[in-house]
Amino acid sequence: MKHWLYPANPKIYDIVSAFTRADETPWPMSSKVELDDFIYIYGGQPYKQVLFKCKVIDIGLPPEAVIEKAEKYIKVSGKTPDKPFMMLKTVYEFEMNSSSPVSFHMMKQNGLKGSIMGPRCLENNLELLKYIRSMEE
């Protein structure tokens, strides 16, 4: 089991609605995620913080199998992703506020290196993983 940090752009996708209104949320796979891994969803501007912790409950789903469920949260029309999807179940919601302990600023002070442009396996940054996990308690 691994832990991943995945960025999400709220200008393109209604992240909050997608992860709070549905029991399961389809998300494009952009890394070597496996069943039972955990995904931390980092919301970009205006949130600039980790918003949700999700468990991977299915992988390798073809886009056409999940697009109907996902498209109601898409804010910008475009082409359908051609990569497989995973199905995520939200297991924890972080409080959303400007002084969040899982904000970009606080994560930079606790092991985050660089910007969050793509998925990261947090087992490659144990300081940051330990810090984020401590904020769930």
From TrEMBL:
It comes from the Bacteria. This is EVE domain-containing protein.
